[in-house]
Amino acid sequence: MQSGRISEHGFLADGRSAVLVDRAGSVNWWCPARFDGPSVFGRLLDDRAGHWSIRPEGGHTTDRSYLDDTLVLRTVFTTASGVVAVTDALALEPGARGHDIGRRSPQMLGRVVEGLSGEVPVLVDYQPRFEYGLVTGYLMDSGGVITAAGGGCRLRLRADVPLTCGQGRATARVTVRAGETYRFTLGYAPASEDEGPALPDADRVVADAVAGWRSWAALHDYRGRYRDAVRRSAMVVQGMTYQPSGAVVAAATTSLPELLGGDRNYDYRFVWVRDFSLTLQALWLAACPDEANRQFSWVSRAMGRIDDEPVPIMYGVEGERDLTEHTLGHLAGYAGSRPVLVGNDAWRQRQNDVLGEILDAAWLMRDYLDPMSPDVRHLLRALADRAVVDWRRPDAGMWEARDAERHYVSSKVQCWTALDRAVRFGSRLGDPSDVARWVAARDEVREVVLARGWNERLGAYTGAFDSDELDASVLIMPLVGFLPAADPRMRSTMDVVERRLSHDGLLRRWDDDPAGFVICSFWLVGCLAQAGERERAGKLFEQLAARVNDLGLYAEQIDQATGEHLGNFPQAFSHIGLINAAGHLTDADERARQTTERDRQPVPAGAGPTEGAR
């Protein structure tokens, strides 16, 4: 049978790749070479595309959690005859600690089975399938190690129990008694390597992973509101970082649908420039400045000189630009949702909001960019100059529409952001004539957005110029400083968007969006916090924070009626939204505290009421 619901999966990471394992103990997704490489377990998208399950033979209940401050997953199965636990970890390099974890990971998956009470018959079913399920490898037992090769890679499985091989599959049945431990270590290597690295005991894989993740967590002591949720989300973002380059992928999967049975099934295992500024803000708030520095360095290298038209909006994890999309026609798709896609043709689009994302991130990092290197200065100047021209052009927008280009309000606002931050940099970025040109363009963008983005009949800023269609992306306007959240038109927009697009705290992007979009919902939290509605913002945050799965993970979207997670998983954008919303609430608390302290100051003798209030 195909894997369970999207939200039933746990997430493991090693700085290069991700594993998704469900509540039934089945590894249903692993692309071991790197996040966007071909899968060896792809059951998430088709039952025939490979999996590796370790589970009790009969009926059971399941309880699972991450070991504290780690991405090491422990699943406890309770049966009528006893209790067993399976602990899963992707290996980190032995001895690596802190910010070094994951940069040279050995690309191994360790699984440890422990008998906790009684005795439990356990079934092991190992079915690797290479090249997204296209290739069934021949399994060979050599000295207790099961080797399988296909599609340019080799897998080697070391197990404490004898496995029976046949028909591209290795199986075992073992009775696990209280106090007994059985270990499984699976290692990946390119097929060109005659021998992969030695396979350590899975106990060691788990121990190194626990120590590595905890050493990383110890360096990040966020002190704001909702500390536990922020720390978990920060760890998820770290887990989605391709450590050799420092790039953060949007999600660990491809082709998980926005609508079951629908065709909006895209590959998200790449790096979007749009996510860049929000990622930096989240890492900053979560007390991860070193990761923020690596992110900015990566984008600077990847973009290089801005001579292309349009400005590149996404990259592969090593900075690749050509991400041409193709269909895996042999796969049935998650819950029959086709097509299944590899690559993403959005890389060809014009998305003018990326100009603001980069300059906003640079402004956040300004103290670390002093002195500013010539290459960074050239990049930021070029982006500001591009905003002077490109704000007038239609684009595909932040939701990457694949039909006609439009004059999206959020894109114009982010062009304003690019110009505003360039003006703030001033002489560090350009000479007086440059700054004057940026000021003039910035002010013109603002004037046009306020005029053509506003719909008097709806009482709201809409998704595009002269449009009647609402779009939650306009909630970025206060968050980037374009308008105060308390501005009457902005406040009206927030009310209309919430009334028309929200249900039980989940905000859709537009009227016929199939589900609530998690980061938009968190944007509303930030807007409410900025508008001074701290209590309501906090309640909405808590509603959204309760929407995570049992391991604290979000997909991209959540069905407003059923609560089912939809879209690629886990989704960095969603976790980044949580972190930044918690930051807005923390800032609002601090503003309220400062106001209260000022109000408590004694009025100077002889001062009138107005003077004292000032």
How does the SSE layout of this entry go?
Layout: E1 10-13, E2 18-21, E3 26-30, E4 51-56, E5 61-66, E6 73-78, E7 82-90, E8 108-127, E9 138-142, E10 145-150, E11 153-159, E12 164-166, E13 169-177, E14 181-190, H1 202-218, H2 227-239, E15 241-242, E16 247-248, E17 271-272, H3 274-285, H4 289-303, E18 314-315, E19 326-327, E20 341-342, H5 353-364, H6 374-390, H7 409-425, H8 432-452, E21 454-455, E22 460-461, H9 476-479, H10 488-501, E23 502-503, E24 506-507, E25 516-517, H11 518-530, H12 534-545, E26 557-558, E27 565-566, H13 572-600, H14 609-613
Antiparallel strand pairs: 1-2, 2-3, 3-4, 4-8, 5-6, 6-7, 7-8, 8-13, 8-14, 9-10, 10-11, 11-14, 12-13, 15-16, 17-18, 19-20, 21-22, 23-24, 25-26, 26-27
Helix pairs in contact: 2-13, 3-4, 3-5, 3-13, 5-6, 5-7, 6-7, 6-8, 7-8, 11-12, 11-13, 12-13
Protein described:
With 614 residues, this protein is of the alpha+beta class. The protein has a domain at 6-217: Beta-galactosidase, Chain A, domain 5, CATH 2.70.98. Helix content is 33%, strand content 21%. It is built from 14 helices and 27 strands. Strands 1, 2, 3, 4, 5, 6, 7, 8, 9, 10, 11, 12, 13 and 14 form a 14-stranded antiparallel sheet that branches. A hairpin with a 3-residue loop joins strand 6 (73-78) and strand 7. The relative contact order is 0.10. The model is unreliable at 607-614 (pLDDT under 50).
